[in-house]
Specification:
Elements: E1 2-10, H1 18-36, E2 40-47, H2 52-60, H3 65-82, E3 89-92, H4 96-111, E4 115-125, E5 130-132, E6 152-161, H5 167-176, E7 181-182, H6 184-195, E8 201-202, E9 204-205, E10 221-222, H7 224-229, H8 231-234, H9 242-247, E11 252-256, H10 260-274, E12 282-285, E13 288-290, H11 306-313, H12 315-325, E14 332-334, H13 336-366, H14 378-399, H15 403-424, H16 426-432, H17 436-457, H18 464-472, H19 506-523, H20 541-545, E15 549-559, E16 567-573, E17 576-582, H21 590-593, E18 597-601, E19 607-609, E20 612-614, E21 617-618, E22 620-623, E23 626-629, E24 631-632, E25 641-642
Parallel strand pairs: 1-2, 1-11, 2-3, 7-12, 11-12, 13-14
Antiparallel strand pairs: 4-5, 4-6, 6-8, 9-10, 15-16, 15-18, 15-25, 16-17, 18-21, 18-24, 19-20, 22-23
Helix pairs in contact: 2-3, 11-12, 12-13, 12-15, 13-15, 13-17, 14-15, 15-17, 17-18
This protein binds 5'-O-[(L-methionyl)-sulphamoyl]adenosine (MSP).
Length: 643
Amino acid sequence: MKYYITTPIFYPNSSPHIGTAYTTIAADALARYHRLRGDDVYFLTGTDENAQKIVRTAEGKKMNPKEYVDGVVERFQELWQLLDISNDDFIRTTEERHHKVVQEIFARLYEQGDIYKSEYEGWYCTPCETFWTENKVVDGKCPNPDCGREVELLKEESYFFRLSKYQEHLLAHIRANPEFIQPASRRNEMIRFIESGLEDLCVSRTTFQWGIQVPFDQKHVVYVWLDALINYISALGYPEGEKYGHYWPADVHLMGKDIVRFHAVIWPIILLALGAPLPKVVYGHGWFLSKEGGKISKSRGNVQDSFELIRRYGSDAIRYFLLREMQVGTDGTYSEDALVERLNSDLANDLGNFVSRSLAMVVKYRGGVVPKSGSDTSLEQEIKALILDVKAGVEARMDAFDPAGALEQIWRLVARCNKYVDETAPWSLAKLGGQEDRLNTVLYYFVEEIRILNILCAPFMPGLAPKISKLIGRDPGQWEEASQWGVVAPGTIVEKGEPLFPRVDIAQLVEGENKDMDAENKAVGAQAAPEFEPIKEEVSIEDFAKLDFRVAKVVSVEKVEKTDKLLRLELEVAGEVRTVVSGIAQHYAPEDLVGSKVVVVANLKPAKLRGITSQGMILAASHGGALEVLTLEKDLPGGAQVK
Ligand code: MSP
């Protein structure tokens, strides 16, 4: 079966970030899964370079647009390589192969009367590259809730595309094909949007030259969205190319929910006008939000350097975290703490630990030689049944474009395998004597379980497969081998190896980096002359009122083991005791604080620090390296409000 999957082509106006990486990683997991199943996969990604915002960004940097995008596109390609993205092609819309197809299509639509010349008068949002009518614009700002930036008034001669002509045809297609727009919430949104009436779309611009020229009217460049959407077929060599004949229609266009509208309305109408088949599925996933709640995006300034994250945690951990956190139909939350938490619990503790301790036992009790299994008990039968159930569950979730659900299924098996180690207690069997057969069975099961987990995890963490394969002496093989039993031959040699996912201590990581910075500062002779932090942006009184500050009585304090900075405080607040972890150990000894009354932000979402759930934060003032916790001196009880 052929399987054609695409990501959006990304604007190279700034380097890629965790948000942009998510779609590409999810598409990669799907592509790898289908390859393992034996499908003939074609996976396309690329960059959308003919946008007006590219011209603006390049101008700001005093560079020409091509020179500017060449640099950023290299960063995209480098990042995809580091994240083990297995795309078959990378299309850039500045390439000749793409220009040619866009021009042919534009000319054809014009000749058949679907594109006509008129005048555009209305608004344009350059960050969104979107036209807006007067009645949609809100106080001179873009109505896209995630944008809200200034729009510009345009009045220029333009070509228009007759979207309205195809409105009913498109609606009929969406109604007849419930799988066309997914998930269902996006589909309903699109139906409402189309039913409210489609207006013809302005598809050319004359006020700048960067882009693809309208072939018969060189004053005009093609509107960037019309140009960009065509990448999905220009990359296949539309209309005559062999790949186009073989792979089109796409099995799925994967993207964030922000751009489903373009893919579920403009794109299918272009294809309808060309008489070409429509993609089978347009899937819109949620966004990654920052801990503070906003979408992760360069313009919000809340992105972290992805290259640095990969250096710290490796590609597999980042892929696992992002895939696991994005639940169908909702947004995911990204934070480095949460990433480390998942890495330590799911990867190091659950999966990594199972593999190392079980292989260590094969080495210890059988010299690393896989024994021949004895007979099953009900425990083994249960495990075999679970494996089939999990595999079917993963398949169902992947068919629904839900890698998070698929990973949840796999972790049911990981948990069961860990429990199996404890239940069978091979160390006792080894001691007891006369249990050789039973011990052989258990050790054989360990190796088979690892082999099967290796197959199931391979689409999600491609860096892991070669490591596990080396330990058990065989590659993951094909997907179907995950439902076969007895594949590892007795006599195979296995090794214990290094831990697959060493635990990460974020406090130490940050401490280490701070130390490096201190050293750097010293090296350049930096003075400790303290500067005041700039005052932050204004907030409304309503925003301020959302924070609930309370007096808290310090009941007990201890140092958090193996850190220099953290204290664990037990606080009494309104009759209940809560735990707060605070980075003040270099300023206060535990006994300095016991009995005092501090101020705590009582409604802060709990966070895990060093495995301890911290329920709030205490207030402290700091300046130039000095720090003082805010305390109360008279008689107010723990729980009193601070306003
Ligand atoms: N160039 C257009 C797409 C044209 S496709 C024919 C575009 N580019 S973009 O660079 O802005 O990338 C948008 C895509 O990046 C989103 O649809 C989504 O796939 C991904 N994401 C960007 N930020 C994201 C998050 N914070 N979270 C999840 N995905 C995000 O739009």
